[in-house]
Amino acid sequence: MNMPSFLSSLSSTPYAMVFAGQATPWREGLDEVAHDPEIAALLGRVLAASDDLLSPVRRELATQSVASLPFSLPAAAGEPAVARRVNGPDEAALSVPGIVLSQLGALMDLSRAGVDFASHPPVAFEGHSQGVLGVEVARAWIDGDEARAATVFALARLIGAAAARQTRRLRAAHADGATYMVSVRGVSDALLASLISQSTTTQYPLSVALRNDTDAHVVSGAPADLAALVAAAERAGTADKAAHDAHQVGGRPLEPVCEFLPVHVPFHSPLLSSALDQVRQWASQCGIDAALTESLASAVLVGTVDWPAQVGAGVEAGAKWLLDLGPGATTVRMTRNLVDGTGVGVLPLGTQADRDRAATPGWEPAAPADWSALRPGLITLPDGRTVVDTRFSRLTGRSPVLLAGMTPTTVDPGIVAAAANAGFWAEMAGGGQVTEEVYNENLAGLRAQLRPGHTAEFNSMFLDRYLWNLQFGQARIVSRSRASGAPLDGVVISAGIPEHDEALALIEQLRADGFPYVAFKPGTVDQIRKVIAIARDAAPTKIIVQVEDGHSGGHHSWEDLSDLLLATYAQLRAQDNIVLAVGGGIGTPERAADFLTGDWSKRHGRPPMPVDGVLVGTAAMTTKEAQTTRAVKELLVATPGVGADDDSRGWVGEGASRGGMTSGLSHLRADMHEVANAAAAAARIIAEIGSDGAQVRARKDEIVEILSHTAKPYFGDLEEMTYAQWVRRFADLSFPWVDPTWQIRFHDLLQRVEARLAPVDHGEVPTLFPTADDAADAHEAVDRLLAAYPNAETTFVTPIDSAWFPALCRSYPKPMPFVPVLDDDLIRWWGQDCLWQAQDERYDADQVRIIPGPVSVAGIDRVDEPVAELLGRFEGAAASRLASRGAEPAAAASRLGNGRAAASEDEWLRHVPFISWTGHLMTNPAAVLDEETVEIRRSGAGVDFVIHLDTAWDSDPRGAEKHAVRELVFPLTLTGEDGAVPVIDEARLPEHMYAMLAATAGVGSTSVAGDRVEALPVMVPSERSEFGEAHYSFTLAPALGFDHAEATGAALPASYELAAWAPDALLGPAWPAIYAALGSAVHDDYPVIEGLLNAVHLDHSMTLVAPPERLVADGVRSIDVVSHVAAVDESSSGRIVTVALELTSGGEPIGTTQERFAIRGRATGNRAPSEAAPFGGASVEVVDTPRSVLRRVTVSAPDDMTPFAIVSGDYNPIHTSYAAAKVAGMDAPLVHGMWLSATAQHAAQAAVAGDAGAHLAGWTYSMYGTVDLNDQVEITVERVGRVVGGGLSLEVTCRIDKQVVSRASACTFAPTVAYVYPGQGIQSPGMGLDERAKSKAVDEVWRRADAHTRSAMGFSILAIVRDNPTEIVARGVTYRHPEGVLNLTQFTQVALATLAIGQTARLREEGVLVPGSAFAGHSLGEYDALAAYAEVFPLETVLDLVFQRGSTMHSLVPRDERGRSDYRMGALRPNQFGVDDAHVVDYVASVAGASGEFLQIVNFNLAGQQYAVAGTVAGLKALEDCVGSFAVLLVPDDGTNPVMRLDVLGKHTVGAGGAPQAVTSALTFEPLQAAGLTFADVDRFAPELQNHEITMPAGAGDVPLANIKMIAALAVMKKAIEKADMDSFIKEHGTVGYAPTQGHIPAGAPFIGPACEGIRAGKMKRVMIIGKGSLFLGRMTNLFDGVSFIIQKNTAENEQGAVSEDEVRKLIAKAMKDFAASILSKEAEA
What pLDDT was estimated at residue 1673? Predict the structure, then answer.
């Protein structure tokens, strides 16, 4: 498909043709067409025809060498078309015809490219300068009149020749670089005319040859004269710059740009009058039409060109494109400037490249800007009013006349609310919102005065870092109030432009905070361009740009609004998302109409440049609602002001006075417009003095005098005042208090004076004024002070107090209304905070600084006009002007609209950004959701938004059967007021919110526990709550915990073994009771549930009396719930509703929960919400411990919350519906906070890597941030303390991208423990005494025990335990024991009882003793358990009991002279040598029988594993010898991993865990034949074993052993033993490790040696040990969990000293040999 070229489209587009004149690249243009044979031939014919026509005068032309032109047509390849180069005026004889010929060639080229000039001719022809010749030759050529074209070309030759001849004859004076024509830019028409009129020429007059724009001209004249003109222009520029630098005038400085043109003939000048006569003569001789000659020759030679007028004529003719045929593109830019915004484009066609591009298929030039679409229109609103319609009004729904933010006038909410209620954009000034308290007070006033549906805006000063940080930076008081529904919908960022990236982030943040309208307020060209760049990158977000110039009131720049707009308007309008408002000097309705309609730009020679809104500030200072005093208002009316268009363009110079206005300096040394009164005069002098302390002192009297005429006089010289004068002066100048801190400072002053005058010389001074309230009435307080201290009248202020006074005045941000001291900070003392006095009736108008704009104040002509009427007058003027020009109003439902004002109510409803919900702004769902989702339903009751919600079941054919919230209904009231948004119908709202509440609670569904939820429970009267209480029951289904975990804890890794229940599983079935209670709460006689859509779950607390699985195990099948509203509180985060639940079963408590909901946007309090009680509110005592991370895990949030809604019973649609989420201000559904709560509970409870986990008893879960679908959430569980009585204190933190989104404090149930107290045998000297220093409780027990034993028994138990003497005397009885009397049973039992009670007391003291646990005692331990844990016996009683018990036992046993008896006790572990529980009694009896000694098992401690044996020393020795000295662990490698233990007696073989029969048979002695074992084999085993290499671990060394002689490990690696082939077995699989260590191994000490490392690494799972004592075994088993040990006591001969490698070999070999021999001997006996 062939695409058309742009040139071909001209056949259907009106266009005009433009031809340039001198100072263009004509040689290049002619060269291009001369090398085109076809065009050159045609041009050659025209040239030849002109030669014929000029034949009568060619002889005269020959004298100038132009009888024949030196043009080669066609030009030879590589050769120029114009070979001759000439200088000076003679160039004109070639350039004038050359330009015409170039333009004619371009025209021919376009014709050949497809432009059909004949059938679709231009609507206009315009020639710039000599371009009029091009116009005529083009007309002739298009008409097909080649002869006329030749005639025009002949005239061009004559004009060029005559101009050159005449210029040479002028013999005008020259200047360096000057020519006969100079371009002057940047100088207005009037100024240029003035400069020309003042110039003194030498011979010839100067004349404006060409007017290219309002400030762009070309002047013709003699070169020297033009040089003088340039010098004059530059002098004018220098003088103007000096005036600007001195701040005497503003606006764009005069910066003339003068350039001499490369033209050596003064075209368009009276200097060429003789040349015109010459052309007339020559033309007559040649028979050329006189009228044609006169028209063209006079236009080129002496006529003045008004190019804006000519271009305007072309536009008026209807042209949409101006085709510029050049030569070149010299005139393109100036022409574009003139048509910019008209919708007319300029297309350069003066070069071959330009024409080729335009002829290229598919290429199109950029569409020209058309500002006519921006012009305002008229609409008629439903109330019949005709108003102005602009982009601003369509965007905001408000009038295009804005009430600007200005301090102090619009700090007060009254004027802001009055303007907003009338449909105007009204800015609350941030300059006066200096604290959060002040802001909240003004915001409350705004809320109270705004009518339903109306909103205001906030103006904040970006460069005031304190205010910005307070309002939108760190403190964000305005943003936070907006989140709470404050009726503010726009933010104006004034006083500075943020950096680009910061601005973009700020726009995004503000819109997210609920401000759809963001405005920037630039005041310079550079700032405007910065904002344009910001808007470009913020697109498509609409950005309001408020351009304000230096004619505004108060602080001002020296920029002029017209200059700013002329420089940037095109760029502003090129950015479609910019809405433009302007301010500064728009003080009258007519001036406002100028800018709204765009008329203002016409005086600058530009097409209408309408703006979208105008800012009104100064004019509002005298309105009825303004707090300005009556005197100030009247002074403003009387102030003449200055005119915007006077000689000074509306400027009042710095320090000058005009029209009752002046421009002074503020305390920031910034320019400030103000009324010229006494205060302004003082400001001028103070600014003049500045910070010069010497000047202040030198001019003190003058300063004091001028300050006395202002609202802030000098306080006085304190050193010359008495204390009475001091306090009186303070009261007179400050009272009544404007600011509460003035009263506070006065109170401080009173107390200081009391301290100074009181007769007390030390200590506290009694005061008459204990609090600041006692100084509320300043004069009364002064009287009381002076009555109490009459010496104040005669006592002068001390230097110390005088020096203190300035510090007192500076102690709070609000300055005092006086100057306390005259120093080098005078300008700040006086100038700071000096605007509020204009609103204080105690001051007259001459005393205060009044800051209107100098132009706008001229328009103030009335006092106390309502602000709505004032702003209405401004809009009315624009409407009247539009109507007078024929604008027809269109009917509209509202100003608001998308591209046009809404034509219907439905269109408005779907476009308005907000609705007003019980006085709070919220996003309009119809504006963010599609039409199918939001149905507008009308009924007799009103208009409703019916929002159809998406669900997970929408594609399910039976989805309607599955419960979900499917509909939201918003009942509306449409006020019909201008600028108002739809308002929720508060009368109809509750029924719809209750319906949503019921659906959210699952009404109509069956819970996962199987309960049918038919309705919310009914609230009944209650003593718990004024709103009543709800009763509800649900089934405790055994599977509920598992079902709940599937939707929550299943997100945890598979390595987490989940608990059967998370406590939150009990909350889900209770939601009907929670929502019933929530729905019962009322605030100010209105249900709090009205804010359900804005409700967020703030925190969740829960306590349980037992884990849910225990409840199920105990048979609990139903839980009863009682719910009520415990509190309705106000906070800065919203209205906090607390719902409390009690869970019981059969009247027995199960637990409690407390749910706190924050209703966002209902924040009437200033305080943050209180923290929820930790641990669910459980009454537990917690001891802090060092923080320790127990586990950290990351989970993925669900991609759909429907499963959780089902198992939890909470169907809140913001978690399951995208439409509901949009209504709530989110892009997608949020993850339910309770999902993460339950998942976090599972993370805390799960068993992980051997950690058994825990059961939660208390849980407080606070939610700080939202969690999106599919978010990655890191859950960290930390131990932060222990619960007194058992259990842990945990902190569980959930983070997303390192940001905390929720945190829980939890406590766990105490673990199931039993306390077991041992009997005798564990005693040792010093036991437990070291704990006395660590524990007061332990120390107290030992002290009591010692005191009792001393008094009642005659000995010190402390001395016995500490020193263990071998002999003591108590009550005349001597007690002896060779190893110390601690080993005598009566002392042992007392010591052990004291030890047990002391240790238990310490556990109790530390809070780790778990009450209600099982407890038991072994032998003596039974007494200890009853006394220490159960506290049945007091300490003293149990000591008496055990002492008597021990004494009785001691007396029954015979002893020798040294106190020794023949009896001992020993611990027997038969499982280590193959004797089971069934045979252990017989085994001990057999040893007793064989030895003839007494042996008896007296304690059956652990069946099959440990027994206490009492017996004679010899009997126990016999038992020990029978047990033997060696044991081996054998492990088959078939996966069953049994442990085979062989004892030296060979009586028993025990297999653990299903050993293969082959193994069992191989190791049993009955029958031995199955093992193939013979006695001869034994002889062979021993030497082989002895010679087997024993591997010595590196680094073991030959370390002596004190108690532990040797550790050897024998591990089997690969295969099962099928027969007792010990030789091959040991050679192939055996490994022996040897690791000595030093001394006794204390509890918890590291085990030394490389063999130990092998055990730790898992290389040795079954270990044979030869060592000493059970204590060592206990240490080993504690150190190496999962490793099985056999321990054996060393033989006597190896009791002392080191064990060598050889001894190890012999010991193992002997053990093996003895083992085999024992088996064979038993076999023989059998």
Answer: 39
CB-CB contact of 578 with 536 (8 Å):
no
β-partners of residue 1525 are: none
List of E strands, 1418-1536 = 1463-1468, 1495-1502, 1506-1512, 1529-1530
Q: Residue 806 and residue 828: Cα distance in Å, rounded? A: 13
Unique residue bearing structure tokens 């027809």: 888
SS (H, E, C) 1028-1090: CEEEEEEECCCCHHHHHHHCCHHHCCCCCECCCCCHHHHCHHHHHHHHHHHCCCEECCEEHHH
**Which amino acid is residue 1077, in one-letter code?**
A
Q: Which of helix, strand or coil describes residue 1370?
A: strand
Q: Which residue in the block uniquely carries the two structure tokens 């949020």?
A: 1230
Of the candidates 659, 640, 658, 651, which has an alpha carbon nearest to the alpha carbon of residue 560?
651
- Whole-angstrom Cα distance, residue 1158 to residue 56? 103
How far apart (Å, rounded) are the C-alpha atoms in residues 185 and 219? 11
Which tens digit of pLDDT belongs to each residue from 417-433? 999 999 999 999 998 89
The DSSP code sequence of 1378-1411 is TT-GGGSHHHHHHHHHHHHHHHHHHHHHTT---T
| Half-sphere exposure in the Cβ direction for 406 (13 Å, CA) | 28
**What pLDDT shows up at residue 1300?**
96
Residues near 1679 by Cβ (< 8 Å), separated by ≥ 6? 1647
> Residue 1523 has what pLDDT?
54
Could you give the 3-state DSSP secondary structure of residue 1508? strand
Residue 73, both tokens: 């047509």
Contact yes or no for 24/127 (Cβ under 8 A): no
Query: Quick one: CA torsion of 1358, 1364, 1370, 1373, rounded to 10 degrees?
Result: 160
Q: For 1664, phi and psi rounded to 5 degrees?
A: -100, 130
Q: Per-residue pLDDT tens for 665-706?
A: 877 778 888 999 998 899 899 888 888 888 889 999 999 999
Task: Give the 3-state secondary structure of residue 591.
Answer: helix
**How far apart (Å, rounded) are the C-alpha atoms in residues 88 and 65?**
14
Residue written as tokens 């002695």?
A: 1565
To which residue do tokens 């002057």 refer? 184
Q: How many residues does the chain have?
A: 1726
Contact 731, 795 (CB under 8 A): no
Q: Return d(Cα 1363, Cα 1595) in angstroms, integer.
A: 40
Pairing mode of beta strands 216-220, 181-185: antiparallel
Report residues of the chain scoring pLDDT below 70.
Answer: 1-2, 173, 201-202, 1161-1166, 1459, 1472-1474, 1521-1726
Please list, in sequence order, all residues whose beta carbon lies within 8 angstroms of the beta carbon of residue 389, skipping any fewer than 6 positions away.
Answer: 376, 377, 378, 379, 890, 892, 895, 900, 901
pLDDT tens per residue, range 1174-1210: 999 999 999 999 999 999 999 999 999 999 999 999 9
What is the pLDDT, as a whole number, of residue 1276?
97
As given in the structure block, the two tokens for residue 1354 are: 């005659």
Q: To which residue do tokens 């669910």 refer?
A: 1176
Residue type, 901: A
Q: Are 798 and 805 in contact (CB under 8 A)?
A: no
Return all residues near 979 (Cβ < 8 A) that are at least 6 apart.
396, 397, 398, 399, 420, 422, 423, 424, 454, 895
pLDDT at 919: 77
Residue 1446: its pLDDT value, please?
A: 86
Return d(Cα 769, Cα 746) in angstroms, integer: 11
Q: For residue 1641, what pLDDT is reported?
A: 30
* pLDDT tens digits along 17-69: 999 999 899 999 999 999 999 999 999 999 999 999 999 999 999 998 888 99
Token couple for 343? 């919708």
